Each structure stands twice: as structure tokens, then as C-alpha cells.
Amino acid sequence: MADRTFYLTTPIYYVNARPHLGHAYATIAADAMCRYRRLGGDRVYFLTGTDEHGDKIAQAAAKAGVTPQAYADEISAAFRESWRQLGITNDDFLRTTEVRHKQVVQAILQKLYDAGEIYFGEYGGWYCYGCERFYTEKEIVDGKCPDHQTALTFIKEKNYFFKMSKYQEWLVRHLETNPGFIQPERYRNEVLGFLREPLQDLSISRPTSRLKWGIPLPFDNQYVTYVWFDALINYVSALGYPDGALYTELWPHAEHLIGKDILKPHGVYWPTMLHAAGIPLYQRLNVHGYWSLGGGKMSKSVGNVVEAFQLTDKYGHDAFRYFLLREMNFGLDASFSEEALVGRLNADLANDLGNLASRATTLLSRFGAIKEAGGQPTPEDQQIRVLAAETRSAVDHEMADFAFQKALAGIWEFIGAVNRYVDAAAPWELAKDPAKRPRLERVLCTLADALQFLGIILDPFVPEAAAKIRGALGFTKQPRLEDAVVGRLTSVPAVEKMAALFPRIEAKVSEEGKSTAPAASASPVKIPMDDFMKVELRVAEVVAAERMPKSKKLLKLTVKVGDETRTVVAGIAEQYEPEPLVGRKVVIVANLQPATLMGVESNGMVLAASHEGTLSLLTLDKDVPPGSKVT
Ligand code: MSP
To answer: Are 591 and 536 in contact (CB under 8 A)?
Structure first.
């Protein structure tokens, strides 16, 4: 049986930089995973925090002219605040400058020292301040740090060393007998690759003559703890190691989520440290790839990772979160661009999911509550049930490996199938024939059921949208995966029509490459014929027209469409006087969701061509009655 307790950690972030895309990805991915496990009823504990000691932070603080503590306080608070705004559901936030952490670091150091695992010696080597570690000759590329491409510093000094080398064979054996210990497999292979070279002992101290900003060694106050030795211990200090109840409960279920650049400390230093200290190993290390800023024209507007993160405010948390989880194949690198984000927002969220939610709730709200659905399920209904069950198990399977992108692709296949189901069942046609009422009820029930399924299973990935979907269906219970089943509903409550879940972004790229959304330019997204067929264009006759009070641009038109009379607000007042329009026939989009413009509900949209500021209403070259379809 699967492990029902789950303790997941993110890396703790250095406080020398403000929160950016890379940090946001790790935190969002961990959050989606924790939300998913909670949805499945598991006991979940989610830890994140900040890594506040070391040269890097001391240097950044000195540059800013403040104390390291003041510097750390400010940036750590910025991380905390970013996660709060993103709705991250962490249970704890650990700072390495907290007493609870420092005590545990010192206790573990003392334990290792007493056990003879730490010795005093001298070491000279090439050091990267960015990575806070020494590089071996083999790892150095063109005399530079392979990660930062910056010059390395040769440091020779007396330090304390952890006898890491003696655990080399043991660690290789552990990786061989536990193939799932590091995933995806490429990273397990990478660690096995490191271990083909002789493993060095690890320098775990820095002399206070060079660096004061650290945790003093309990056995020599002329030294502070090396930052990685300090930082890794956060994963157990946060649980109150060695006696805390949380430690006892959670540590046997620990999994870490990290980026590939910090594989060696997590895949080599940490397991050997744990083993030497007599602490059981974590269960699994999950490693993601790197985001680069690339691609499309609009991406010029995203000059760096901090700006990329700020797009979350521009496009919304759900859209940002969805993009990160959907776009990156877990374990591989991915490319971030504003254009790609907008593409997914329009295609997957506004079109596929948003349209389904608005069509479904419009239909459901029109027909009111269904007490006991009449018709029997047909093979089409049955297919949606089966697909829902298959989707749930596929999502479960993919989430077991942090394969967010595959889980989401599976859910989107289901959304596509439900959209096709509605098209084929055509409930609006069924509604015209009272004899087809039982079938109509069954279709609406399947639709409500499918939407509820999505309102539950999407919760970890787009929490705000999922909550709105559940809200529209009157689903007020705590969402649980076990309720994500299609086929149980026999009645449907009164459903509220939903406003657009995700607004479409019509973006224009200006000369400087900056995006200036929204604009009237044509969207580059190509739509399938099916989508176009959803748009109902009809001839409408203007029976009354007046200016909207306090608006220069808007006219309020009363139009006849067949037997129906409706109000349409049109943005043509700057070029058309109201009176001459009366009696004219125009073309409208007849099946748009109503929109309220300056207090008037508009039911449709008048079509007009536009060229360099000139508007030209679409008219007909032969007379046909109002209500005629435009195809
Ligand atoms: N403080 C250490 C971690 C200590 S954990 C005991 C650290 N901090 S960091 O702030 O530099 O990076 C934290 C995480 O952000 C890492 O997992 C890193 O992979 C991730 N990212 C930073 N930039 C990134 C991208 N551009 N793309 C994806 N993730 C990246 O390392």
C-alpha cells in the first residue's frame, strides 16, 4: 500500500536574491504535489524556508551597507510574502538564523565530532563563492565555475573535515539497491557518475578570520559551519530532531524536491552526513531541470528571472502556475517566455477549460435544478464515466513521479472529450423537443458530473479556478479525490452561470518587443473548425438606438433577431449616429455570454470591420429577414 504520510521539502532559498522564477517553480511544484496528496486524504507536511548564512549573504549585505541579519530579515520576509500571495500551503517556514535550527546543527556537529567523523586538516582548492563549494580539477571548465562561468578563487586554509570519502562504497551500494532513491533516473546516473571518481572529504568549516556570518562550531569557536552543512540540516531541524514528535512522525516519509544545480550536495553530502550521524536516509530525491528565458518575440520583455516571476501579477496566479507545471517536463530544462505563457493561457485555460465551464454552466443554469434525471445513460455518457476513471488513475500514476506535465495533459484530454460530448449531444437542440426532456436531463447530469470532477481534480493545479467551478455547482464540501467520480450524480442543484474563468489575452507586440495587451490585432492562435462552429452569427434589425449616458463610445441598440428582441451595446458611437441606424440590418454574434457595460446588459455583439480607426458595419447585399443565420 502506498505511503499515506508525506513530508515534502523545497530547497531553502538564499537570501542574497529576491524571489524569482526558479524559486517560484520549485515552490509551486511542491505546493501542487502537497495539495494533490492532501486531496487524496494523505497526511502531508510541507516545508520551505530561507538559507541565510555564508559568504554570499555577508557580501551582499556589505554591499547594501546593512548587517547580514538585517539583510536576511528583509529578503526572507520577501520570500514569505511571495509565497503567501501565491497561495502556497506550506506548514512551516524555516530560517537558518533561528535558534531551533542552530541548536540542531551544533548538536549534529558535536555528535559527529565525538564519533570521530570530523578531523582538523589543511586543504587548498578552487572555490566558487556562487556555489559555496570547492571544485575539483575535473569539474572546472576553462578555469571557471561550470555553473556561474565566473573565475574561481584559490583558497588554502586549515579547516575541519567530515570523513565523507569513507562512505563512497556504501553510497554506491545504496543507489544500486534503491533505484528510486533519486529520480528522474538521469540524475541517479549523474550521482553514480560523480561516485566513479574518488570522493573527497568535505570541508565543513570556515575560519572566523575570513567569515563570521555562520553558526559557530560547538568544539571550536574560531570557526563557523560551512553553509551547505548548515543548510541541509534544515530538513530535520524543522521537525525538532532528535526528539520532536514531528520528527518521529514525518522523517520516515521525507522526500526532497530540488533543482539539478544542487544535486551533488543533496545526492552525496546529505546522505553521507545522515548515515554518519546515524539518522535514517530520506526516502527520495526529486530533481527538476532549469528554466531558461528564451524564445518568442515577446520574451524580450522578460529580461530576467525576477521579471518572469512578476508576470504572475499580470496574468494571474492560476495561469502562471498552470504554465510552469504544464510546460516543464519534470527533470528536463524548459524555456520560459511571455508569449508561450499567453499561448497556453488562451488555448488551454480560456478556450478548453474556460469555454467548457461557461457553456456547461450556461446550459445548466438555463434549465434549473434537476431532481431526478430521467433518461438512462447512453454509451456516450458511459464513455465520459470511463474516461474520468481512467484520467484519475493516470493522474495518480504521473503524480507519483512528479510528472505534472503528463498529469495535466491527461486532464486536458478529458476536457477535450467533454467538449466533444456536449457538441455531439447538442442539449440546446434536445431542449426544443419536450419528448426529449429525459435525454436532456441525462446529458445535463453528465455535464454537471464532469464539471464537478474537474473542480476536484484540478484543485492542486489551478486552485482558484477549481474553487470557482465547485462554487458554481454548489459543491461546498472539502474537495476529495475519492469524490472525483463521474456517474454518481442523479440530480443537479440550481447552477450559477459562471463568468469567464480566464480572460483571453489579445496581445500585440510593439516595435521594442514589449507586449502591450490588450490590442485589437488578430490573435495568432488558429482555431479548429469545431470552435468556429460554436459561434452563432445572425442578422439583426435595429429597432431602436440611443447613446449610452456618460459614454462617448457606446450606443445602446435594441435589435430584433427572429421573434426575439434584445439589447446589444456597441462601441460605435464615435462614428455612427443612433437615429439613422434604426431600420438597418446588421450582423451580430448571437450566442455570446451576456456582459454588463456601464450598467446595461448586452446580449450579443455587432460586427464591424476596422481600418486605421475607421469602423464599417457589416451589412447585407440582399434582403433577408432578421434572425437569418450567417454561415
Ligand atoms: N540555498 C541553496 C539550497 C539549500 S537547500 C538545503 C540554494 N538556494 S538558491 O536560492 O540559489 O536556489 C534554490 C533553488 O532554486 C534551487 O533548487 C535551484 O535549482 C532553483 N533555481 C534557481 N534558478 C532556477 C532556474 N532558472 N530554473 C529552475 N530552478 C532554478 O541553492
So the answer is: yes
Which pTM value belongs to this model?
0.81
- Dump strand ranges (E) for 491-625: 537-547, 555-561, 564-570, 585-589, 595-597, 600-602, 605-606, 608-611, 614-617
Return the residue whose CA atom lies nearest to atom 8 of ligand 1. Answer: 13
Count Cβ atoms below 10 Å from residue 521 Cβ, excluding itself.
11
Q: Are 411 and 395 in contact (CB under 8 A)?
A: yes
Helix axes 355-367, 463-472, angle to 10 degrees: 10
CB-ligand 1 contact for 305 (6 Å cutoff):
yes
Q: Is 12 in the pocket of ligand 1 (CB under 6 A)?
A: yes
Q: From 258, 263, 302, give the residue whose CB has the most ligand 1 atoms within 8 Å, as the site to mutate.
A: 258
Q: What are phi and psi of 544, to 5 degrees?
A: -155, 150
Alpha helices in 158-267 (DSSP H): 168-177, 185-194, 227-232, 234-237, 245-250, 263-264
Which residue CA neighbors atom 24 of ligand 1 most closely? 22
pLDDT in tens, 543-558: 999 998 888 888 999 9
Query: pLDDT by residue (tens digit) across 213-265?
Result: 999 999 999 999 999 999 999 999 999 999 999 999 999 999 999 999 999 99
Angstrom distance (rounded) from CA 464 to CA 480? 16
Ligand 1 centroid – CA 14 distance (Å): 8
Length of the chain in terms of residues written? 631
Amino acid at 362: T
Nearest to 166 by CA among 204, 117, 123: 117
Measured from the Cα of 17, ligand 1's closest atom is 10
